[in-house]
Amino acid sequence: APHVQYERLGSDVTLPCGTANWDAAVTWRVNGTDLAPDLLNGSQLVLRGLELGHSGLYACFHRDSWHLRHQVLLHVGLPPREPVLSCRSNTYPKGFYCSWHLPTPTYIPNTFNVTVLHGSKIMVCEKDPALKNRCHIRYMHLFSTIKYKVSISVSNALGHNATAITFDEFTIVKPDPPENVVARPVPSNPRRLEVTWQTPSTWPDPESFPLKFFLRYRPLILDQWQHVELSDGTAHTITDAYAGKEYIIQVAAKDNEIGTWSDWSVAAHATPWTEEPRHLTTEAQAPETTTSTTSSLAPPPTTKICDPGELGSGGGSSAPFSISVTVTLALAAAAATASSLLI
Amino acid sequence: MLACLCTVLWHLPAVPALNRTGDPGPGPSIQKTYDLTRYLEHQLRSLAGTYLNYLGPPFNEPDFNPPRLGAETLPRATVNLEVWRSLNDKLRLTQNYEAYSHLLCYLRGLNRQAATAELRRSLAHFCTSLQGLLGSIAGVMAALGYPLPQPLPGTEPTWSPDPAHSDFLQKMDDFWLLKELQTWLWRSAKDFNRLKKKMQPPAAAVTLHLEAHGF
């Protein structure tokens, strides 16, 4: 079995050929490829300025008999930097989780050790079944005045590091974003959008620990968000949408009293209801008198919207003259709508 | 060790139970109590900051994490999760009432020691607000027909600074008082949320359901 060796990136290393004499005649190979003899110092292999590419299986052979004398599995890596640790309760009051990572990779295996102290009491941090860098703590008591201290130590073959954080029960509360955010146009209401969402499924007890919500929306073409804070309910109707513009809408959640806002939800898109457009056909260019069958005039809308196009069209008039008149009026209506967008 | 004399609180005049027919029920006063806890919590944030600065380091350091020594008589907000969930309304309200009664007493003691006039003013203002919260809780209890807790004869505590306590230990007591007060206010918000939900008439829930589904 090869000897496993860990060396630091950038350093120099000398690999002896097992127990061979310094002046023994040997050949070195890495991953089956011969190495140049100028790397040798006697029977020892000298590697300078180790790079990640130097990692591999090194073997030295007796030059004449090709007898394998020694093998080294070399791993080039780094000692761990201070880990980044954070804890969060998205399942208040059930518990919280802590997750960690290293700011820069070590390229070699690391082991982490997490300890959780509540005052002087040690609490169990259960490993997450799926995520390697996360563990979960269950609250035994609520409304504690004593802070929690979570410490993590990380070590690998080249070194170790550690960090710790201390916090109050209430400060780490941060729900998951609201789910299933849906925005729908409201029929016959060109400036409204109806938004609905659900409390995050991870929040265990919305009855006793109600959430409040923050809604933000803007038309795609603008950068400025509008905001609405809602103290309860999972629905809201936007009443000041710009007609005909596609909107992007997001919702965030927060416990009513403690903690911080969740991240923004997945965005919902919607465009407010607009009146069915009248089809403009080639009659618009030539003053041809054609039958009304080739132009499909929409039936007049039932709600009274201030639309000059309505006047005189009556819907489906068969006189050729009225077709061109309607076209003009429709264009005028479009212009009127554009000017009402306040852009 | 902190102790407190609060005869004036224990002898609040009994509020007669409201006439049930036609009255809106305890709902509005629960809401009012909830709102008061939020107001007090907000007020406490600035008050505590100022007071801890007055105590000086390490008390005003954000990472200050001392072991809970002394201050044994302070009413503790901390409670087992399942126990808290299963508290009946009467017990829930009683625990709140008793806690704030004691906390108010200790706060009044703090007021006597505080150095600057401004700090004393802030503390006095907060004490008045806290008194208001107590009255509000008492009103809810009366509306629900629960008796106000009375102290057992002979156990009425008297506030006096422990002569054996050093200046540092007294400051520690002050620190824990403020901490416990803040935690109680957070707990009370949750307590009153729970009470609010239980008191909500079923008709209202149905109406909300319809609205959510729109047309």
Briefly say what this structure is.
The complex is a heterodimer of chains A (343) and B (215). Chain A is mainly beta and 343 residues long.
Distance between the termini of chain B: 63 Å
Largest sheet of chain A: 5 strands, mixed
Number of helices of chain A: 1
Helix percent band of chain B: 55-70%
Poorly predicted regions of chain A: 288-334, 336-343
- Determine the CATH topology of the largest domain in chain A: Immunoglobulin-like
Task: Report the CATH architecture of the largest domain in chain A.
Answer: Sandwich
Structural class of chain B: mainly alpha
How many E-type strands of chain B?
Answer: 1
User: Oligomeric form of this entry?
Assistant: heterodimer
Mean pLDDT of chain A: 85
N/C terminus separation of chain A: 75 Å
Number of domains of chain A: 3
Care to count the β-strands of chain A? 24
| Total discrete domains of chain B | 1
Q: For the record, what CATH class of the largest domain in chain A applies? A: Mainly Beta
Global morphology of chain A? elongated
Strand content of chain A: 35-45%
Run of helices and strands of chain A? EEEEEEEEEEEEEEEEEEEEEEEEH
